[in-house]
Amino acid sequence: MFKIYTKHTSEVGETVFQHLAFTIRVASKMLCSALFLIVHGMSGGLLNMPEKYNLCSIKEFLCDADENRERLKEENGE
Length: 78
Known about the structure:
about 80 residues, mainly alpha, 3 helices
């Protein structure tokens, strides 16, 4: 299969398309969290944050995503 790499994607051990999928997944989760945070703030805290999008969950999601990415990089010998 034809794989496209750039300097950055080679450094992180991903193809351009794998990197795009990773960034879309992370950005989507962060965007949803940001929207919930804005609504929560505008309501004066009356509307509770869904646990899935609170700050601790987002931190855990980002750390897990980074760990998975590093693990895959090591498995591929990069």
